[in-house]
Amino acid sequence: MIRKECNKFSDICDSMSDWYKPLAWVLLFFGSAACTEGPIVPEPEPEPSGFTIHMDEENIVEYQEDEQGIYPHLYTAYLVMENLPADEKILYMGGCYSNGSTEPDLSDYTLIYDYSEHDTFQQWDWESGPLIWNCLALYHLMPGTTYHIRGYVKTDKAEYFSNTMEVRSNFTAPMEETTDAYTIPVIFHLFPDADGSYPVKEWMLKEQLDYANRVYSNYFGIPGQEDTGVRFAPATHAPDGKPLSTPGMIYEKEPVEIDSANAELEDRYVWDMEHALNVWVCPITNVYEDEYSIFAGFSYFPFFDENELLPGCDIYKPGLATGIFLNKQAVLTANSISTFAHEAGHFLGLAHVFGQGGDYCEDTPWYDRNAYMQELNGYTNFKRTDANGIQYYSDNIMDYSYSFLTGITPDQIRRIRYTLQHAYFIPGKAGKEEPATRISGKSRRFGKNPVRYTGGHTVSVKTIIFSTKFLSIIKLSSQSNFRPEEQSVCVSIY
């Protein structure tokens, strides 16, 4: 219609005398603009959805895994979802939590599941009653800390957050002060995303240190575990003596990704390794993945002179570097506060308790990890079966979850103390000094065999991990203490 009217106007102009034509074309220009642009009509506001989500006290389930009651309790949060309209579809569901904000969001710890093709979610009869589903499984909470948790749902039309609930670990006693422990200063190098933001928050890294100190001090008091005499503290000064504005942390200016199979960093990102334990927090590529695990980070065994080599560790060569790499995405994921403590064990000479060649410690039972994972098949199981067929609860920090990850044994402590006495790159007065501590202007290379750590176990569904700005769908599946197809689905009566 618009085009027809405009063409008709042009024909009229052609029939006019020549001196009218310029005026006509001016009128045509403005008339055409009016025809094509027209008044801007605002889009109507979408009708509000009747969909609601919430949690109540009975939806936070605390349970004791072991018969003796000596281990930290586990927590599961269930989300109540009601009245989803017929024309609205659930895509993702999960939760988030924080030890600070009373209204945590997707910039805090998250655990989000992809349910866009899950039969129960997509075929649920919402007129029959609410759908109640596990949205958060919390295995490792900082003792003495109150966490605020919220359920989260994303549909094809909107995002929803539930009300806030509180969860607090059953371990509440403060950690005892120790005056004679060997303290290792730690510096976290935080690298920005491409947009310049720093998604990993300072309190998350503080929790990493705090949890490590509880593990290394035998805070949990588990039989068979002892105080290592080692503590970790945020570095207070840069190598040049300047005080840090935020102890233990430096915000690097450029984005960095690390290839786990061929780690290399510019020298400017490597602080004097005898001044502080370097921990780089950034995306990590080229990691091995399986259907059970989220890749959390990696480290390197300590370096020794050949005549003092600790079994299972590496021989010192000039120019090499050491330290810990934490996967930025894993730090943001729920149940991740044990990663630094685990990798620090490798830095101090400890191997995995399930390694094929053993871990050189007689008081850490060995188990067949592959057989355990096959039997697990997505379910929660904190028990292991050792080489003699005896069952026990996994609690060593050098195991993987499902594990309580509470402490370290006497034989492991002997390896740690040997490392402190004989290894290179031990911050502080311990260890041996490298002849040349800096290679300014060049890249630092690391050892050939990084020791990797995979975090929580997973189920065979897609996972999404949220950052502060966007969500990315990745190959791994989300942590859960239930297989989705086996979760209890019920209609609650309120």
Question: How many β-strands, per DSSP?
Answer: 27
What's the pLDDT, averaged over the residues? 83
Rough outline = globular
Main β-sheet description: 7 strands, antiparallel
Give the strand content. Answer: 25-35%
Per CATH, the class of the largest domain reads Alpha Beta
**Which class do the helix and strand fractions yield?**
alpha/beta
Give the uncertain stretches in residue-range form: 1-36, 457-494
CATH-assigned fold name of the largest domain:
Collagenase (Catalytic Domain)
> How many domains, as an integer?
2
Could you explain how this protein is built, in words?
- The chain has helices at 2-15, 21-37, 119-123, 202-216, 328-331, 339-347, 369-376, 410-422, and strands at residues 52-54, 60-63, 74-82, 90-98, 109-114, 131-138, 146-155, 159-161, 165-168, 182-190, 230-234, 249-251, 258-259, 264-266, 277-282, 284-285, 293-299, 303-304, 314-315, 320-321, 324-327, 383-385, 391-393, 443-446, 451-457, 463-466, 471-474.
- With 494 residues, it is of the alpha/beta class.
- It has 2 domains: 52-171, Immunoglobulin-like, CATH 2.60.40; 182-457, 3-Layer(aba) Sandwich (Collagenase (Catalytic Domain)).
- The strands form 7 sheets. Strands 4, 5, 7, 8, 9, 26 and 27 form a 7-stranded antiparallel sheet that branches. Strands 10, 11, 12, 15, 17, 21 and 25 form a 7-stranded mixed sheet that branches. Strands 1, 2, 3 and 6 form a 4-stranded antiparallel sheet that branches.
- The longest helix has 17 residues, at 21-37.
- The radius of gyration is 29 Å and the shape is globular.
